[in-house]
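Following up on my earlier thread - several people asked me to post the actual chain instead of describing it. Fair enough. Here it is, all 158 residues.
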Amino acid sequence: MSDFREDVTAEDVKAIRTMVAEVGVFSPEEIDVAEELAEDRFKLGAKSHYHFLLADSGGKLAGYTCFGRIPLTAERYDLYWIVTDKLAARQGIASKLIAETESSIRIKGGKAIYAETSSRTAYVPAHAFYRKHGFAELARLQNFYADGDDKIIFGKIL
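Reply from S.P.:
Thanks for posting it. Predicted structure:
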């Protein structure tokens, strides 16, 4: 069972950094960015451009999404992060998080959601997750992140 909330606490900032690091696929720079976005939301609250949806299970952070409206678009949103705690994996928390995030975006007037990811083998489960939840691969920018590491953009109309 998961409870969802939007407010990021100081403890969440630390937990998010640890959670992202423990996934084992993100670079130190990416881990820093995840922490910075959480810190931004913690410090600025609703004034932050970044929205968070956090899933708690058993009194502990089990996963989260970070998303935001894409500037200069009509009701389009980027999904910046969706991460679950390794101990919470395979419990359906990621599926619940994406459904709740999509609902939150709809409530905010959002019409579409986009997620970018790497083409590296470590990200194949993420590709399957997006497809399972109705996202389509919309674009692939070859050698974007590095030679042999494409940027894949998934999208979904809400």
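Helices lie at 10-23, 28-44, 93-107, 124-132. That should answer part of your original question.
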